[in-house]
Amino acid sequence: MKTDIAGDKNSQTTHRRLPPLSALRCFEAAARLESFTHAGEALHLTHGAISRAVRTLEEDLGTRLFERRSHRVFLTEAGRELLHSVEHAFDLIDAAARKLRTPDKAAALVLSCEPTLLMRWLIPRIPAFFAAHPDIPLQLVAGGGPFTFAQGIDLAIRRNDFPWPPHTHAQWLFDEAIGPVCRPDQAVGWTRDASGRVRLSDTAPRLHSATRAAAWEQWLTLKGMQQAPGTEQVFEHFYFSLQAAVAGLGLAIAPWQLVRDDLESGLLGAPFGFIADGSAYYLLSPEAVDPDSPIARLLDWLRHQALGSEQHDATRPAP
Predict the structure, then answer these.
(1) pLDDT digits 0-9 by tens, 197-213
(2) Of 41, 113, 131, 241, which has the fewest Cβ atoms less than 10 A away?
(3) What residue ranges are annotated as transmembrane (predicted)?
């Protein structure tokens, strides 16, 4: 253990003999301001106190640090050398003090979410999360399908339609419910027969997505319907097929969560309602969720956002 006892084998005094630190502080201010008077004002000391501190320093070092001319002081060669070292030392001390005074910010949780769910469901709601939980930093990234937590991902929202990484902990968020959607003003011609009953017309344009190629077939099976395909159009991404429905190009099979905002605003209608397809979305993590952790608070918030007044009637066809 190091001590300050002279003669002790571990004494720091045998290795380091520093000038008085208070004198160094007065010296630095006087050198920077080129004035003992201004240095005193900056440090809330008198001119005489600065002068005595500098004189003590010069006596300790055995050399002159300033040349005094009229009301100003100028550094000698020795003074410039000392100032360079003192400024560097003070900068190091200041940086260390700043770091200690300011606690490290918690690293942001990186949440990977399927792109269409991210765009149409999570991003419109996430400002409310930041407002309610300003102490939980969260970074959103788009990603679908297989992934590994080793890729810098802390959490992921995925549908259970593919194998998850080993030892993944899954927390249920909401069940998937699907149904055809289109613009309300086009629904009558595509989903009503001559008597006004709800029925999918053979001529109704169907919008498909390459990423959910079997969506229409799955929905028809769930509804127990057999229908010859009418006009069809395939889009590269699921999001595009939903946007095409908004644009009036046809009927698209949509999960309720992804179109609930468009349904509420009147951009889209769901003439057949929605029916559960047996799949669900989960929040995935590499470890079990601590009940008192930020992840637990995020999980509760996500589940709350998944609820809605229309969800209870999701399987009912629209009147």
Answers:
(1) 777 887 889 999 988 88
(2) 131
(3) none
Task: Summarize pLDDT for 100-117 with one digit per residue, the tens.
Answer: 776 656 688 999 999 999
The one-letter amino acid at 130: F
pLDDT one-digit tens code per residue, 62-75 = 999 998 877 778 89
Task: Say if residues 121 and 257 touch (Cβ distance below 8 Å).
Answer: yes
Q: Are 143 and 153 in contact (CB under 8 A)?
A: yes
Q: How many helices (H) and strands (E) does the chain have?
A: 11, 10
Q: Please tell me what DSSP assigns to residue 119.
A: I
CB 130 within 8 A of CB 138: yes
CB 126 within 8 A of CB 140: yes
Q: Where are the beta strands (DSSP E) in the chain?
A: 66-69, 72-75, 109-113, 138-142, 155-159, 169-181, 206-209, 232-235, 251-255, 275-285
Segment 52-58 long-range contacts (CB within 8 Å, at least 24 positions apart): 53/20, 53/22, 53/23, 53/26, 53/27, 54/23, 54/26, 54/27, 54/30, 56/20, 56/23, 57/19, 57/20, 57/23, 57/24, 57/26, 57/27
Cα(214)–Cα(224) distance, integer angstroms: 15
Q: For residue range 125-172, what is the model confidence (pLDDT) as tens digits?
A: 999 999 999 999 999 999 988 888 877 899 999 999 989 888 899 999
Q: Is 130 exposed, middle or buried (0-12, 13-18, 19+ CB in 10 A)?
A: exposed
Question: In 10 A of CB 256, how many CB atoms?
Answer: 24
| 14 within 8 A of 21, measured Cβ to Cβ | no
Please state whether the predicted TM-score (pTM) of the whole model is above 0.85: no
Domains of the chain (ranges plus CATH)? 12-101 (1.10.10.10), 109-313 (3.40.190.290)
Distance between CA 14 and CA 16 in Å, rounded? 6
Q: Say how far residue 303 (Cα) sits from the centre of its chain.
A: 19
Q: What angle do CA 298, 300, 302 make, to 5 degrees?
A: 70
